[in-house]
Amino acid sequence: MLVIPAIDLKDGRCVRLRQGDMAAETIYSDDVTEVAGRWQQKGAGLIHVVDLNGAVDGEPKNLPQIESIMKAVRVKVQVGGGIRTIDTVRRYLNAGVSRVVLGTAALTNRTLLNLACREFPQRIVLGLDARDGRIAVKGWTTVSAVNAIDLLKELSGCAIAAVVYTDIARDGMLNGPNLPALKEVIEFSSFPVIASGGITSLEDLRAVQSIGPKIEGAIIGKALYDGKLDYQAAVTALSL
Question: Residue 168's pLDDT band (boundaries 50, 70, 90)?
Fold first, then answer.
């Protein structure tokens, strides 16, 4: 199982939010390239980058920072946030991004999702962000009436590389992942699943890993930046 460090970008800086609240930010660095280089140095095989401003505004807002990350590191990078057109998908993937994450577009623009999956098979990741089981969109500012599991079932035939499942209530709260919800996603997913939200300790990681082989990885943000979890210790623990 991959341990995937997160770099959340807001106004050009590396930050973490609590439950997706744009007003509840902690700033960790003004130098996002240095942050990405640090995770590469520690051995990360994949970095998860989110354009928070883009997610809310519906178009890339931290593109210069993301492009600088791509020039600075050799590891795989997946990017989400504000990707609502096929031109944006192409721009990121042609710039060297390994995979792009579609969340809002997967729910509101099925034509785009299908086109992206046809043009870039296995390079599109479904961002399944849920609050009380329902899909949240537009940077989590709006909660739809659509159940996350129902959307997952609908998309079973798409050439999606993986699903990032985020329990919004757990995100940035350092109180552990929502394991029952994650198990339900695993049960109904046709794709590998990446867990996100609340993962704080080695015990959390082992609990996620124990769910089964369909778990591709776990995204970790605040716990790494606050020093509550050591990246290399986490990788070592999961390899035992």
Answer: confident
- pLDDT for res 77: 98
Contact 126, 191 (CB under 8 A): yes
Instruction: Give the pLDDT confidence of 200-237 residue by residue, as tens digits.
Output: 999 999 999 999 999 999 999 999 999 999 999 999 98
Of all helices (H) and strands (E), which one includes residue 120? none
Q: Domains along the chain?
A: 2-239 (3.20.20.70)
Q: Give the pLDDT mean for 55-81.
A: 96
Catalytic residues, by residue number, are 8, 129
Q: What's the pLDDT score for residue 18?
A: 85
Backbone φ and ψ for 116, nearest 5 degrees, come out as -60, -40
Q: Where are the beta strands (DSSP E) in 73-178?
A: 76-80, 99-102, 124-131, 134-137, 142-147, 162-167
State how far the Cα of 3 lies from the Cα of 98, in Å rounded to an integer.
16
In this structure, the strands spanning 99-102 and 21-29 are unpaired
Q: What is the length of the chain?
A: 240
Phi, psi of 129 (to 5 degrees): -105, 120
Token output for 79: 């990017």
Residue partners of 235: CB distance under 8 A and separation at least 6: 3, 43
Strand partners, 55: none
Which residues partner with 4 through β-bridges?
219
Which letter, b or e, does each residue of 125-164 get, where b requires 16 or more Cβ atoms within 10 Å of its Cβ?
A: bbbbbbbeebbbbbbbeebbebebbebbeebeebebbbbb
3-class DSSP state of 222: helix
Q: Give the residue among 121, 127, 128 at the shortest CA–CA distance from 160.
A: 121
